[in-house]
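Exercise 7.
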Amino acid sequence: MTSASTLLSATSLGIWLYLTLGRGMFWRLRPFDDDSIQHAAIEHAAPPRWPRVVAIIPARNEAATIGETTSALLRQDYPGEFSFIVVDDHSEDETPRIAQQFASQHDAQSRVQIHLASPLPPGWTGKLWALDQGVRHVGPQAPEFYWFTDADVVHAPHTLRRLVARAEQDRLDLVSLMVLLQAKTLPERALIPAFLFFFLKLYPPRWIANPNARTAGAAGGCVLLRRSALAKIGGLAAIRNEVIDDCSLARAVKRAGGPIWMGVTRASHSLRAYVTFAEIRDVIARTAFATSLLRVAARGNPRRTGPHLHRPRRAPIHTPSHCAHPRARCMAADVADFPADSSLLSAIAALGAATPPRRLVLRICHLALRRALLVQPRRSMERPRPSPASGLTLCLCFSRRNASSFQVSAIVLSHNVEP
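Solution. The predicted structure, written as tokens, is:
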């Protein structure tokens, strides 16, 4: 009994020591707290001519928040040329009209554009498609920076000026800020702090800023991206099917050799309210599921050598045309649409290199996966709404087919999918 207690105590102590000292000091955020950093020196080092910036705001059914978001962007005290594009992702409410109305009230029609996104093509998630549509809509006079932000985030007037000043002083390709989330309702107070702790533990800001570390992360509500860095990774099409778009973008930029930085702020805040525990559970489940795929993929990457990350040789992966259940047909199609450079497929090719033929390489099961995650990857996917009738259990199995290829199958273990 004593030895068991001692072992348990030692294990607990080891876990806490690892979290305290072995995870990039993720709990020490002062060097990455944008509100406490002395910005005078940073802004003093900014160039005499501030670069042109275009903000892109994907919006789908955001009538309740788009007005405040638009007003906050129009109040930015940025010294350089600044405009923004609201990409209407086929909203069913008054989102585009309200955005245009607030622009007219501020007499800023020349700085605000409302663009209707084209229909979502196969293989794209909704938010990334909307962002790509905004980038393409900018036209020939491309800016030096794109500012990706959400339609439910209200930024402080100094936000853009500080982002650009930091990017120019430190020659960063990507700068991101994690904005203050709502913590008013009981579910928010109970789960949001734990979720932020979980996120920072997975993506320690020190590791993100370290060019020799593989960890890369960003917060999608506020991402400043250098145009040349976006072109270097092949545009947003390079990550078009990623669910966690912000961290996938940061990962692509860092793998291409671009320096990145992520901090936190309380001056900018989110208007998104989570009323029930189920809403927050869906967000956490989506993050944990997609993050697990990225971490599995990271195991297949060789160690960083020099300024570049070399990818392993990949084998083709074949997807059967049939599926175990008729309702899973769309999900099987989504699996087939994974691009060749998908981090998931890279992981399978790496893990299966030493696996005998016709043997299971990897099985990924995710309970209560939302229908919107795979069947209809549109804007609502980014913030799933509670829908008890749309839960399902999905199992992805990857098997070694022969010496040079693998096979993937989607198996629905239980389903209750809305038509």
